[in-house]
Amino acid sequence: MGGADQARPWVRFPGETLPSVRELASELSIASNTIVKAYNELQRLGFIESRAGTVAERMRI
Q1: Which residues form the HTH gntR-type domain (predicted)?
Q2: Which residues pair with 55 in a beta bridge?
Q3: 33's torsion region: left (phi>0), alpha (psi -120 to 50) or beta?
Q4: Residues 58, 15: contact at Cβ < 8 Å?
Q5: Which residues sit opposite 33 in a β-bridge?
Q6: Other CB atoms closer than 10 Å to residue 34's CB: what's the count?
Q7: What DSSP designation does 17 have?
Q8: Does residue 54 contact residue 44 with C-beta atoms inside 8 Å?
Q9: Is-contact 47 57, C-beta < 8 A?
Q10: Is residue 9 part of a domain?
């Protein structure tokens, strides 16, 4: 099963929080740094937002 197929259970709706870096890395058996890079890229592209002291969440559209 590919990475995209593995990530499908993690689909979220606007306003829902995303899994923590550690949680998602463990679930997908990949390095935490990979998740950090992915979350940073999603934030850069405007798909998610994060706030200091909170977890990342999808932007409300």
Answers
A1: 14-53
A2: none
A3: alpha
A4: yes
A5: none
A6: 14
A7: B
A8: no
A9: no
A10: no
Strand-pair partners of 48: 58
CA triplet 16, 45, 14: central angle to 5 degrees? Answer: 15
Give the CATH number of the domain where residue 38 resides. Answer: 1.10.10.10
* Amino acid residing at 60: R
> CA 9, CA 28: separation in Å to the nearest integer?
11
- pLDDT, one tens digit per residue, over 1-21 is 455 555 556 677 788 888 889
In whole angstroms, what is the distance from residue 29 CA to residue 24 CA?
Answer: 8
DSSP string over 29-61: T--HHHHHHHHHHHHHTTSEE--TTS--EEPP-
pLDDT digits (tens, 9 = 90+) for 23-50: 999 999 999 999 999 999 999 999 888 7
Cα(48)–Cα(14) distance, integer angstroms = 9
In a domain, 36, yes or no: yes
